[in-house]
């Protein structure tokens, strides 16, 4: 039995899940810890062992101010727990799998040795806001846990199957090859988990399952999955393309940033010797999205503001384009007379997000030639916001998607054997394609890939 740590280093948090697994077997999660608030101190440690909340909320002080110190804090908490017998000391950890956002052309997880690490360092310029944090923890693990095998699991690897005509940008191809400029796609660990889980839920072989999946969180994307494999996805060379997010603009006119500010070609003051971030990247990644429109990155607050108007804005005439258009015109007039600027801005952000999501669903429905088994909502927002799901499904109802409003508002699937389901159905009974919600689990997906990879044992 091996102990596997699945490490997910974000821009403001570090999350570690502890699994046990046999070679080739299914991992079993035994604990999970997270330090959040690294960019908005004080940082907070939360630790759960199984269903028990061991440390529900503990401020960890100013000394924990980056990803490396956060990982050290989590590792100490795991070792110090007398009721976690699988980890008594650092040597008890066998495999550490790291979520790496940008893996370039890697199509599967990689054991981290010197040349692998150097290759990942070379990719930093393609993901300056993401990869560096993970590489710092990898260095730390190599120093502190030299007996453990470190494995890189890439968000890009699931999208290695995207066809050439979809992943290619219409630019000089010699330059594109030299500079590795193409669509890579992200959230791949999540989409891999979603595809397998949905296929199992539908009772279909993975290779015969085609879905449109939405990973909606502070970072948001969409993916067309054809025969269990990625066919297209909304993110591109970097995670910036596609849907807007908490602080990301999503896809905009490429010239926009040059009209937005005069210093966009210069390096940001946040750049370091190892981390080169231009002002353009900083503006579009950190100073845009819902925060720019509303002043908040909390989508729950945005949805709550939209909920007050949901009765008006989401009611549509049951039949007839003229009735629908009239209802939408009435909604615009009501919005123009709303004197609360904060409410208007939040409604704008909500409606903009719904519209962008719906646009990708329509595009992917066509690229999959209408052969769609299900529309799947996942990610924090996708799982929790019944209002967003209702609004999206309403807008794409012309494609045959229908919602069971009672199931949609129930807040989760029906428990089986005392456990919440991974996938639950919110579509109207008897209608295909189905509408589903999936509780995605990138940590488990990483652990599964390591457990199944003979080269990691």
UniProtKB/TrEMBL annotation:
Keywords: ATP-binding, Kinase, Magnesium, Metal-binding, Nucleotide-binding, Transferase. InterPro entries: Ac/propionate_kinase, Aliphatic_acid_kin_short-chain, Aliphatic_acid_kinase_CS, ATPase_NBD. Mg(2+) binds at residues 8, 442. Its EC number is 2.7.2.1. Pathway: Metabolic intermediate biosynthesis; acetyl-CoA biosynthesis; acetyl-CoA from acetate: step 1/2. Gene3D superfamilies: 3.30.420.40. It is an enzyme of class 2 (transferase). The keyword Metal-binding applies. It comes from the Eukaryota. Belongs to the acetokinase family. This is Probable acetate kinase. It comes from Remersonia thermophila.
């Amino acid at each position: 039995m091996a102990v596997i740590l699945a490490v997910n280093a974000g821009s403001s948090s570090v999350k570690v899940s502890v699994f046990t697994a046999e070679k080739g077997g299914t991992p079993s999660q035994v604990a999970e810890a997270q330090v959040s608030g690294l960019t908005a101190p004080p940082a907070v440690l939360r630790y759960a062992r199984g269903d028990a909340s061991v440390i529900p909320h503990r401020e960890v002080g100013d000394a924990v101010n980056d990803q490396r110190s956060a990982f050290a804090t989590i590792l100490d908490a795991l070792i110090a727990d007398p009721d976690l017998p699988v980890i008594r000391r650092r040597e008890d950890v066998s495999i550490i799998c790291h979520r790496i956002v940008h893996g370039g052309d890697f199509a599967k997880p990689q054991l981290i040795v010197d040349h692998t690490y150097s290759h990942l360092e070379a990719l930093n310029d393609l993901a300056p806001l993401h990869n560096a944090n993970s590489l710092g923890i990898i260095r730390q693990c190599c120093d502190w846990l030299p007996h453990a095998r470190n494995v890189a699991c890439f968000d890009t690897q699931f999208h290695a199957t995207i066809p050439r005509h979809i992943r290619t940008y219409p630019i000089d191809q010699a330059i594109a090859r030299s500079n590795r400029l193409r669509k890579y796609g992200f959230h791949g660990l999540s989409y891999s988990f979603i595809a397998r889980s949905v296929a199992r839920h539908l009772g279909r072989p993975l290779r015969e399952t085609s879905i449109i999946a939405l990973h909606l969180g502070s970072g948001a994307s969409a993916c067309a999955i054809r025969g269990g494999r990625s066919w297209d996805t909304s993110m591109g060379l970097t995670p910036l393309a596609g849907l807007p997010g908490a602080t990301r603009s999503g896809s905009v006119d490429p010239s926009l940033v040059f009209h937005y500010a005069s210093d966009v070609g210069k390096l940001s003051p946040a750049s370091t010797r190892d981390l080169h971030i231009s002002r353009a990247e900083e503006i579009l990644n950190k100073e845009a999205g819902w925060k720019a429109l509303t002043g908040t990155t909390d989508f729950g607050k945005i949805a709550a503001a939209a909920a007050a108007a949901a009765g008006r804005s989401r009611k549509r005439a049951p039949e007839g384009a003229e009735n629908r258009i009239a209802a939408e015109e009435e909604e615009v007039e009501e919005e123009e007379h709303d004197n609360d600027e904060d409410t208007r801005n939040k409604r704008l952000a909500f409606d903009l997000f719904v519209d962008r999501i719906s646009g990708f669903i329509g595009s992917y429905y066509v690229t999959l030639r209408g052969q769609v088994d299900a529309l799947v909502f996942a990610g924090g927002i996708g799982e929790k916001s019944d209002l967003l799901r209702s609004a999206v499904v309403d807008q794409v109802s012309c494609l045959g998607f229908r919602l069971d409003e009672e199931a949609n508002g129930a807040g989760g699937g029906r428990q089986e054997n005392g456990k919440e389901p991974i996938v639950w159905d919110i579509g109207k009974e008897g209608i295909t394609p189905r509408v589903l919600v999936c509780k995605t689990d990138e940590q488990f997906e990483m652990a599964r890939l390591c457990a199944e990879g003979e080269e990691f044992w």
